[in-house]
Design goal:
Strand content: under 5%
Number of strands: 3
Radius of gyration: 52 Å
Helix content: over 70%
Order of helices and strands: HEHHEHHEHH
Length: 193
């Protein structure tokens, strides 16, 4: 994690304020780094822009940063002037200013959005895989519950056979009917005689 993000996190949770020395100690402890030299100079510059104290006065930021630069280089000045000024300002209680709080909340929101986005991405991948498996199973393994073998259209052949039989039976019937009429006419003639 970045020292600035960690500083904002610590400052955001410090409702009663925090000194620079406490903040630096917590950052070094949690991130397992040493804040000194040029890193400390740049960090202190950011710190004074991002945290405010009611005791901060009398010294211009430029003058204070000159003392801090000399202090971080190990040159304390005449009668330890730079060291005394820096230790005094590092001992004041500071509170995170509104702009820095807004930056920190924006960072938290962005961080949460990334987590949510990753989660949604993985869920969409799983959904796509499930859909692909479903399509594969539907096309390759779906069989009807019974096998239907169509050899030929036997029904039309059977119908034609039955129609032929019916036609031949009709023909036979007509012959029998004709013969019966002939027989009846002959038998009526024989009775009249």
């Amino acid at each position: 994690m970045n020292i600035y993000i960690k500083a904002m996190e610590i400052g955001y949770k410090s409702n009663e304020g925090i000194t620079y020395n406490e903040l630096k100690f917590q950052i070094e402890k949690s991130l397992d780094i040493e804040v000194k030299g040029e890193l400390e100079y740049v960090f202190v510059d950011w710190f004074f822009d991002s945290f405010k104290s009611r005791n901060f006065g009398g010294q211009t930021k430029r003058g204070l940063m000159t003392s801090i630069l000399n202090y971080t280089r190990g040159t304390y000045g005449i009668h330890n002037h730079h060291k005394n000024v820096v230790e005094q300002y590092f001992g004041y209680t500071y509170f995170m200013n509104g702009t820095t709080i807004k930056h920190y909340l924006d960072y938290l929101e962005l961080k949460e959005s990334r987590v949510t986005s990753k989660r949604a991405f993985y869920i969409s991948i799983v959904s796509i895989l499930i859909a692909l498996i479903s399509v594969y199973l539907a096309t390759n393994s779906a069989k009807p519950p019974f096998d239907v073998n169509i050899i030929g259209d036997k029904t039309s052949i059977e119908l034609k056979d039955k129609e032929i039989k019916i036609d031949s039976l009709k023909g036979e019937l007509e012959k029998a009917d004709t013969l019966l009429h002939i027989y009846e006419k002959d038998s009526v003639k024989i009775q009249k005689k």
